[in-house]
Specification:
Layout: H1 31-39, H2 44-70, E1 79-83, H3 89-94, E2 99-104, H4 107-115, E3 121-123, E4 136-142, H5 151-161, E5 162-173, H6 181-185, H7 194-203, E6 206-214, H8 219-232, H9 248-256, H10 258-261, E7 272-279
Parallel strand pairs: 1-2, 1-4, 2-3, 4-5
Antiparallel strand pairs: 5-7, 6-7
Helix pairs in contact: 2-9
């Protein structure tokens, strides 16, 4: 089944502005949630991305625990909020690092979380989070900020619910020239450059501790694939359906292996960006 572009015409916004002329739906297109739930456990992109995210989480949560001990605290688990938790795969990972809660604007996405046994979830928008101020040690926005009409408002809300010294871990798509079908069906508003993301994160009241491009490995194939789809007007239901079955495991390991390099260096470009930011007082 191919996605028909006539059903919804989407004009991607310019990344020189963080507002859009005509707001899109807050949720992804309805058919994408079931696809996401089906593929996110095994598709090479999700597998590799989780390995990269996990490597950042390990260091970040270790630093948070050390800081807590130095301040005379310790004991209770870290409180973590996953903003835009989707169908729950990342929330399961976060649960290994502390008491994890999830929030998403989509009721359908939350139903998939509940099917997984993830009950500490709420329905709500990133720009108006249904939590008290100073509630969490760590807030994650993993491929979320690009969905927001006002990314600055969403980031300010993440800062509001963070405790003093808390961190945000963000993962966003990079470069508007990489815009593709998945951006359309996900109702993305924008893709970022490193400079643009750093600017809006700082404006929201964070100190950027580290930001780097990721997924350098598949930058060229993804660029060529999206150029091909534009030229041929090929419109799959979701790019998440596209993979090479017998290579899926290998591709996931190749992408995940970037986590080793990212311990020591930043990438000059990539398909996505990961950012660690600390709440400023």
């Amino acid at each position: 089944m191919l996605y028909n572009a006539e059903y919804q015409q989407i004009r991607p916004m310019s990344t020189t502005s963080n507002t859009i002329d005509k707001p899109l739906p807050r949720e992804m297109q309805q058919h994408t949630y079931a696809i996401l739930r089906r593929v996110e456990e095994s598709h090479w992109w999700f597998v590799g991305r989780r390995r990269i995210i996990r490597s950042f989480l390990e260091r970040l949560c270790r630093d948070l625990k050390v800081a807590r001990v130095e301040q005379g605290g310790g004991g209770p688990a870290l409180n973590i909020l996953d903003v835009g938790c989707g169908t729950g795969a990342n929330l399961e990972v976060l649960s290994q690092f502390g008491e994890a809660a999830g929030v998403d604007v989509s009721g359908e996405a939350l139903s998939f979380c509940q099917e997984r046994g993830l009950t500490n979830v709420k329905q709500g928008a990133a720009e108006t989070l249904p939590y008290e101020a100073d509630s969490f040690d760590l807030v994650t926005g993993l491929d979320v900020v690009e969905h927001l009409d006002g990314d600055l408002a969403g980031l300010k809300e993440m800062r509001r619910v963070l405790r003093r010294g808390g961190y945000a871990l963000l993962f966003v798509p990079a470069f508007m020239f990489l815009w593709g079908v998945q951006d359309d069906v996900s109702n993305h508003r924008r893709r970022y450059t490193l400079k643009e993301l750093k600017r809006v994160v700082r404006e929201a009241g964070f100190e950027v501790k580290r930001a780097t491009y990721v997924n350098l490995t598949f930058f060229a194939p993804i660029l060529l694939g999206r150029l091909f789809m534009r030229a041929t007007r090929l419109r799959p239901e979701s790019e998440n359906n596209l993979t090479i079955g017998f290579l899926n495991g290998v591709l996931g390991k190749l992408l995940g292996a970037e986590s080793v390099l990212l311990r020591h260096l930043n990438f000059p470009f990539g398909v996505s960006i990961i950012c660690v930011a600390r709440r400023m007082e």
